[in-house]
Amino acid sequence: MRRAPQDNDNNPPEPDDDADDAGRPSKSALKRQMHSLQSLGQELSELPASRVAKLDLPEALRDALAEYRRTRSHEGRRRQLQFIGKLMRQTDEAPIREAVAAAKLGSAKETLALHEAERWREELLASDDAITRWLNHFPETDAQQLRSLVRAARKDAKAEAPEQRHGRSYREMFQLIKTALAATAAPQPEDGEPGEDDDDE
User: Fold this and answer.
1) 3 state DSSP class of 144
2) How many structural domains comprise the chain?
3) How far apart are CA 23 and CA 16, in angstroms?
4) How far apart are CA 157 and CA 162, in angstroms?
5) In this predicted model, what pLDDT tens digit does every residue of 50-59 receive, in sequence order?
6) Residue 65, C-beta contacts closer than 8 angstroms, at least 6 positions apart
């Protein structure tokens, strides 16, 4: 009986793209790592200064980031970013990645909150039923103020002049909605004064 040929008997093992024969990272692996660190460096440079100040970064990296922000030419920024990538090879990147991820998450949450406020505003302008639903969801809202703003914003929407259609009431509605949404997301709003909820008017 004839045996089927065994592939693993004669075929040499495929080379590992990420390491050479001595177990060192290959050129392509090093290149990928460098590009990754450069991208991380660029994201780090875009963080608010207050967030960057909290990170334990080497002075050389802080200086390089400051220089990158000052540089205006495309080629100059590209070279500076390469330098930042090299510096980051000697830096613990884990806290930096955490800070960048936290900033992205915060930005995404803010965007979602703005979209939610805009959605509610359009619904309130479109239907009295939406006002009832809003007051059921947010009973702390001053119902009289809300109805007054909705009436005024609806009236402005019918104005002949385009600049009058989204007037003061339209903007004040947005602020009222945004504040209410933020209050439900955070148990203790930063701009609230300490005291009992019953005393709020």
Assistant:
1) helix
2) 2
3) 9
4) 9
5) 788 888 888 9
6) 41, 44, 45, 52, 57, 84
